[in-house]
Task: inverse folding
């Protein structure tokens, strides 16, 4: 069953449990924020859909083709307005959706998508796969921390997903999203993990990428963090 959802195309991929901070200044997205604020939070939670742009930072004339087919709902946690009309929005990724079409009759300056929800199917995840990803991710965090700081004792500490679970690392689904959102990946690779049909598939894909990155870290010499800062940054 399809539904309508306001869209915020971005040059990045949002995954469930991940916190998203946006500074809103464009008129069309100011209108989106105004519409979100007009909703009664006692009736419905203000949400919008984040969908990654295939190339560039803007959606052009081929709007639907310019967007990836799977996105993530962003649940608004806080909106802070500023005197100049701009605002800061803090949201968190929730449920995935598949973008079926765009609604040309929505009558809003921002895009409205026709979407269907993607459920997280319950599948058997081999314990050794979970352990393998946990161990490989720990190695990755240590290697990345050492690369950035030049210290062998440094470690990158990932932001754990916002969840009611006591330990996201022990839940296969949340572990798969935490790794997906934390790794330094090309947009298409992160998008492929988001679109994976289930946690087991996502963990297998993540494990391959973790092993690839660890191999790369072993052959790349340590460089100052300032050199890494010259590389294109994730918009988040």
Result:
């Amino acid at each position: 069953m399809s539904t309508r959802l306001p869209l915020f195309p971005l040059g990045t991929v949002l995954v469930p449990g991940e916190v998203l901070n946006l500074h809103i200044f464009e008129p069309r997205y100011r209108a989106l924020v105004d519409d979100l604020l007009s909703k009664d939070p006692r009736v419905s939670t203000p949400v919008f859909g984040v969908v990654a742009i295939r190339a560039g930072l803007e959606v052009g004339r081929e709007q639907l083709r310019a967007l990836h087919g799977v996105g993530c709902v962003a649940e608004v946690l806080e909106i802070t307005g500023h005197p100049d009309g701009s605002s800061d929005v803090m949201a968190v990724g929730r449920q995935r959706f598949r973008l079926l079409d765009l609604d040309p009759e929505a009558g809003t300056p921002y895009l409205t998508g026709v979407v269907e929800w993607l459920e997280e199917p319950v599948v058997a995840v081999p314990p050794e796969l979970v352990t393998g990803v946990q161990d490989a991710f720990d190695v990755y965090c240590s290697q990345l921390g050492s690369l950035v700081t030049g210290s062998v004792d440094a470690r990158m500490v990932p932001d754990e997903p916002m969840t009611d679970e006591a330990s996201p690392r022990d839940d296969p689904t949340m572990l798969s999203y935490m790794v997906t959102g934390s790794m330094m990946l090309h947009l298409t690779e992160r998008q492929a993990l988001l679109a994976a049909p289930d946690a087991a598939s996502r963990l297998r894909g993540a494990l391959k990428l973790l092993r690839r990155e660890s191999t790369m870290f072993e052959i790349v010499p340590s460089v100052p963090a300032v050199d890494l800062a010259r590389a294109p940054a994730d918009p988040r």
